[in-house]
Amino acid sequence: MGRNKALNLLAAAIIAFVLTASVFAFAPAAAAPEVPNGPWVDEVVWIKEGDPAKVVDMISKGDMHAYFIDVRVDPKLAERIKTDPNIAYKYAYGLYFELTFNPVGPEFKDGSFNPFSNPRIREAMNWLIDRNYIVNEIMLGFARPKWFPLVSAFPDYAKLADVVKILEAEYSYKPEKARTVIFEELTKMGCEYKDGKWYYKGKPVVIKFLIRIEDQRRQIGDYVADQLEKLGFTVERMYKSAREAAPIWLRGNPADGQWHVYTGGWITTAVSRDDADVWAYFYTPLGRPEPLWQAYKPDPIFYEVARKLWNREFKTIEERQELMAKAAELAIKDSVRVWLVDQIVPYLYRKDVTLAADLSGGFATALWSRTVRFVDKVGGTFRAGNREVLVDPWNPVAGTNWVYDAVLISATQGAAFLTNPYTGLPMPERVINATVYVEKGVSTTVSSDWLTLRFVDKVEVPADAWWGYDTKAKKVVTAGEAGVKAAKVRIVANYGDVIGKIKYHDGTTMSLADWVALWPLSFYRVDPDSPLYDAAAVPGFTEWRKLFMGWKILSTSPLVIEWYVNFTHPEAEFIVSSYAGWPSIPWHVTAIGIRAEEKGLLAFSTSKADKMKVEWMNYIGGPSLKILSDVLDEMINTGYIPFSEWASKYITPDEAKARYQALKNWYNAHGHFWVGDGPFYLDRADFLAHTATLKANRNYPDKADRWAWLAEPPIPEVKVEAPESVVPGLPANVTVRVSYKGQPYPAARIDFVKYLVLDAAGNVLGKGEAKAVRDGVFVIQLSPEVTGKMVPGSYRVLTFTLSKDVAMPVTAESTFPAISQAAYLTALLGRTEARIASLEQSVNARLSDIEGRIAALSSSLNTAMAVGAVALVLALIALALPFVRKPKAPPAAKPEETVVKTQ
Amino acid sequence: MAVKGLVKYVVRRGLVLYATMLAALYITILVANMGGKVDEIILADLQTQIWDTVNRNPAYRALSGAERERIVKQMLENEIKRLGLDQPFLVRSFRYLIDAATLNLGRAQFMTSDTGSRLVANIILERLPATVMLFTTVMVINFFLHLFLGLYLSRRYGSLLDRVVVALAPTSVLPGWFYGIILILIFYTWLHVLPPGGIVDVPPPKDPLLYALSVLKHMILPMASWIIAGFFLGVYGNRTFFLIFSTEDYVEAAKAKGLPPGLVERRYILRPSLPPIITGFALGLIGSWSGAIITETVFNWPGLGSVAYMAIQYLDTPVILGFTVIYAYLLMITVLILDIIYGLVDPRIKVRFG
């Protein structure tokens, strides 16, 4: 009983423990918040603030959670954002500085001298400038040295890394070399160096240096001017704003000699994956029509290479890469521009929030609205700051193009594709998958798993595909009627089951009409006889018309659409994203604008508004609202259907009225007409305070965590493990370990690990691509040919790793010594001797051990034998005893037990 | 007879002022366009912008250089037509003048109002309430504060308070926005009790009363900065002004007659000094409607000063002219009214109406 009681108590204790443990184990799971549809947060309010110091203060105090435009960093601000415990920042790239040289000469029209007409002197400027000084002292670390027009965080730079890194080393800071070359060339050009100054035809060589004053280019200009003065030039520093400088360098005739050098600055607003045209744009007359560009006289080979890349005249990706490599080499020889730094601009946010940042656009892309959240909670009000809020009119056809407006608009609209913030590649949001059929011979590739690329002999356009719309006959023109039979590309996109499922903000549901009803609009906008005609729409339409061959809806459930086009792109993802759209604004919302423009009351584009002397249509405020409201009332009464001869096939008058009524209700509730299908809707816009409130759309089809994987760029962490030494003529292996947050990087997600083997002088002995052994491990096999070029000394292996998920290449290196064969043999002999000695020691030790064990065993055996002998004697005695003695009486007790132990 | 004379005087004076204003406006048109030079700048800016737009547009990325150039040309032509730059500057200058003379402010070339309107009238009028609310209020407060404290101190010449005001008068050399930054540092950065800028809380309260209170809260720091900046010099100036008047012979005579000090102040000091005070008030009032660029920037206040600044930055001639036209009219009307008021309030000024 007692034992049972104890067992019961034990069981009870175990059960209690298990239950308690279960409670603790499952408590966090029970408390885990449900992932909502739409965004994580409940609302986002927008604050206009232009002062970076105030922005930093507001973020620190929690009055602002993130700032959606980059801030220019001064020393105080840099210190503050690096030390404030509440502030975090993400980097973006795409702003870059350079020196633009006037290439005319050697004499200008007025007889003055231009040393920069000499390409050798321009080339030498690369050696004269210490880019690291600019990065560290002027840009306070918020920059990277730059030698080429390719942005170092974008894919084309990464793909050329093995070429450009060599050139960068060759053109790094070498002031003495610069001095030698410049002195040599100036002398050849007839200049004289007297008392530390250069003279041309008896007059000092004056450099007219246009220095921009709005940003760090002022200090950069001063630094470069100082270097030129040290060489003996007389520098006239002309400090100018953009507007003051532009008439001189951009629009003035460079032959007039008003300037020699200008501190240029450029911007790329999105991660660019195809920079084939940069060489022609920056170095040849093809780039722009301004006089400066027309004065460029590049080397004929360089011009031809740049021209081919400008016009995309290459058949394969390999050919393109060869051209790019050649262009990089020739561009730095030409150096009409000497590139200085790629800026790294910080985007500020509070540490208690998180949101994805694009490598180029920072927070100002559509993804902010899909990823923004508080770290420790679901819901809440997010306070977003921007330099401007609500700038120009919003309308669905030709409204604002300000980035400040776009960042809000993108949150209110779903999209067929979003742009991957770290690679620049399209990522499908509403498209599920797609197939692209490309005519053989078109150079394109694919790297996304949602897209299938097929090369075919011929792409035939079906006769019933919609090619256009005849605004006179008011009917669709089919490809057959237009005589279109073939195209270069066929795109088939699958959107899934969206018709009748997707909800717009005003409660209406997506129908086929949202896809096709307004198809004629583009054609009316370019028809001079139409009240919707807009001259500003013509250039874009003309180009579109040339490439678009037709489209066809293959099925509605799931929605599958195909397009036939002549547009090609080196990456097939862009072919799809250029055509496969998404009706993020329902047809009835656009229809009120169409009706207002038809009636001559408002105009979609600013250009037409000015021409008609009416207001530029604004769906969210101003005088447009009253007009649109009146038009909507009229449409409700009349049951207006836009382009009714066509759209009536898809919209009934009752459906139209129901949609208009929904819009009316929306207007009454929110005071504007902006209706979309994005993760947020525009709740209120206050134009006096320049603030807007976006609220969560819980009807959004995606869960808030859909894009959570984009919260941070998975930049590979690379470690190069070089061998202890390499022997010339013998193969050697270098291990490259690639990881992310301590975990091996999946080999399938690595685009490449390229390498260079360099000697101490920077000469390249070998290059190639490392092979993946397993996830996170790559091996560089140095062949005997490569190691055979080595002599005893120090070498380094430089690697460039590019992930398919981040456009930014990662550079890592390791050094190793090469030793002579004799030294190797001596070392090998030494090592062998040492090994033999070690083995000998080991054997001796083992022998001793064995001897010891044998001795121990012998001793045990002897003992056992002794015990055995004693036992035997005892046994014999025991056997003999009965015969020697008689028993005295019957046994009263148990006979004694005799235990015999044997060993 | 006197009324007929008054009307005749007003009409004649009005016509002279109107002609002066038109001349001033035409000069403004010429200056704002640099005699047509601005056209060149705008054209060049446009060409650069359009090139950049086309080069950055992924839709045009696959086009050849020649194709891109053709698009740029077409877009540029559209813009030239939109801006009316296809007409000679002289023709446009007279069109601007006729519009200005008829108070037709026209359309902006580049700017839009806060609510997205292209009409210059809307661009200006939408910002006027916020400007009046802040700067006119400050101006009126300052005016009466300086007036009455100046009068008060003029009676206590040499007192401790008087000496303090005189000693601190140089502090008014610092502009209002400077004090604004100090106040933001104290009341936002340090104490975190008042907003650092803006006109209303974000998100704006839906209740109108709460909205108004929120606006008042946001007015505290900018108003305080301007009141502090102008206080000592304003009081000192008025005190000196009244001191000069209070030593006039006729004031001494009035005092000698034994008139009460209040009566002496009102009738013998304040009344004869009213014309310059009224002039100052009227011109101050007009001036307050132009806003203050830096203060607006520091406090992120949506006033007219920043709109004027942007118009100059954009070289948006119609907006620049719009401002000039409005202020020219306001000034003309004010001067005309002042001319009449002077005759009424100052017995020393005699106008022969007949």
Helix content of chain B: over 70%
Radius of gyration of chain B: 26 Å
Helix content of chain A: 25-40%
* Strand residues, percent of chain A: 15-25%
In DSSP terms, counting alpha (H) and pi (I) runs of 4 or more, how many helices of chain B? Answer: 15
How many structurally independent domains of chain A? 4
Q: What's the multimeric state?
A: heterodimer
Beta-strand content of chain B: under 5%
- The number of distinct β-strands of chain A equals 40
Please give the count of helices of chain A. Answer: 28
Main sheet record of chain B:
none
- Give the rounded overall mean pLDDT of chain B: 84
Shape of chain A: globular
Kindly report how far apart the N and C termini of chain A lie: 45 Å
H/E topology pattern of chain B: HHHHHHHHHHHHHHH
* Overall 3D shape of chain B: globular
How do you describe this structure in short?
The complex is a heterodimer of chains A (about 900) and B (about 350). Chain A has about 900 residues and is an alpha+beta fold.
Task: Explain this structure.
The complex is a heterodimer of chains A (903) and B (354). By secondary structure, chain A is an alpha+beta fold. Chain A has 4 domains: 37-91 and 360-413 and 678-709, no CATH class; 95-343, Roll (Dipeptide-binding Protein, domain 3), CATH 3.10.105.10; 414-677, no CATH class; 714-823, Immunoglobulin-like. In chain A, strand 30 (680-686) and strand 31 (691-696) form a beta hairpin. In chain A, helix 13 (300-310) packs across helix 14 and helix 24 (624-638) packs antiparallel against helix 26 (653-670). The model of chain A is unreliable at 16-30 and 889-903 (pLDDT under 50). Chain B is mostly helical and 354 residues long. Chain B has a domain at 128-302: MetI-like fold (Orthogonal Bundle), CATH 1.10.3720. Helix content of chain B is 73%, strand content 0%. In chain B, helix 2 (37-56) packs across helix 3 (65-83) and helix 6 (128-155) packs parallel to helix 9. The model of chain B has no long low-confidence stretch (mean pLDDT 84). Classes of the chains: A alpha+beta (903), B mainly alpha (354). At the A-B interface, strand 1, helix 2, helix 10, helix 20 and helix 23 of A face helix 2, helix 3 and helix 8 of B.
